[in-house]
Design a protein that fits this description.
By secondary structure, this protein is mainly α. It has 2 domains: 1-54, no CATH class; 56-268, MetI-like (MetI-like fold), CATH 1.10.3720.10. 73% of the residues lie in helices and 4% in strands. It is built from 10 helices and 2 strands, in the order ββαααααααααα. It has helices at 28-46, 57-70, 72-104, 106-119, 128-135, 139-163, 167-175, 180-215, 223-232, 236-264; strands at 2-6, 9-13. It has a two-stranded antiparallel ribbon with strand order 1-2. α3 packs parallel to α6, α3 packs antiparallel against α8 and α6 (139-163) packs antiparallel against α8 (180-215).
């Protein structure tokens, strides 16, 4: 705590963050979901919301129970998790390495930034037919699509985070005689980590979108294939069950990234 004196009065100000540190209120998030689901259930039962546009949450839950009892839930989830894990892992690892290299080396920046800028705006879903021609309709094309979709935003977020590291800290490390390697691992990478993890959230969200698109083409099992089949039959309960699975997947991924942030970035609080 530090003491600030103004007009003869003293006031204690928190050293880290002061009044700008957000409080963690865990119950608000679940409460929002509960209220929203309760409103949807009430609206569909009293006729305020048409059952042709939105199914009852209780019916969607019943579809989940049926998926669980028949074993179809895991038949769809496991392939999707495998595709998402492999593709996103490749894209994030390579993208982070390339982004750090762009941030640290001038020749790499000069050569790769124009290439990344050219690839980044291309809708990756539009490349799916090309990937099917290159890699076949099996798993390799799906891995490649998800990897490319996570690669470009990861690169942009990573080298942007490296560029935003406070140069005063770097000069301070140089003044203390730290080697280039020590500066990179003790100053640059820790300072860039908040931006890298923020970019990871975006990259993984894009990976889920591309997962669904890839599974809608040439996949027998997977969440995307399940949603496509339900949509073609206009089965709203199954359709919303698939969408709910994707939403839960996004929540889980966000929670894992948040856990990683708390472990690696505890020094910010």
């Amino acid at each position: 705590m530090s003491e600030v004196t103004q007009q003869g009065e003293s006031k204690l100000v928190a050293f880290k963050g002061g009044g700008f540190v957000t409080r963690k209120i865990k119950w608000v998030g679940p409460a929002v979901f509960i209220v929203l689901i309760a409103f949807m259930e009430w609206g569909t039962r009293v006729g305020f919301i048409s059952s042709l546009t939105l199914p009852r949450p209780s019916d969607v839950f019943g579809t989940f129970v049926d998926l669980w009892n028949t074993g179809l839930l895991w038949k769809h989830i496991i392939p999707s998790f495998t595709r998402l894990g492999v593709g996103a892992f490749l894209g994030v690892i390579v993208g982070t390495a390339v982004g750090i290299s762009i941030g640290l080396f001038s020749y790499v920046r000069a050569g790769l930034v124009p290439l990344v800028a050219a690839i980044f705006p291309i809708p990756k879903i539009a490349l799916l037919p090309l990937f099917v021609i290159w890699f076949g309709i099996d798993e390799a094309s799906k891995y490649a699509l998800i990897a490319l979709g996570t690669f470009t935003p990861t690169v942009v977020a990573t080298y942007g985070a490296v560029d935003n590291v406070d140069r005063t800290l770097i000069r301070m490390g140089q003044s203390f005689g730290l080697s280039w390697r020590s500066i990179v691992f003790k100053i640059v990478l820790p300072g860039a980590m908040p931006g890298i993890l923020s970019g990871l959230r975006v990259s993984l969200a894009i990976a889920i979108i591309l997962l669904v698109a890839a599974e809608m083409l040439g996949a027998e099992f997977g969440i995307g294939a399940y949603i496509l089949e339900a949509g073609s039959l206009f089965d709203l309960e199954r359709l919303f069950a698939g969408v709910t699975i994707l939403s839960l997947l996004g929540v889980v991924i966000s929670a894992l990234v948040g856990f990683t942030e708390n472990r690696l970035l505890g020094w910010r609080t």
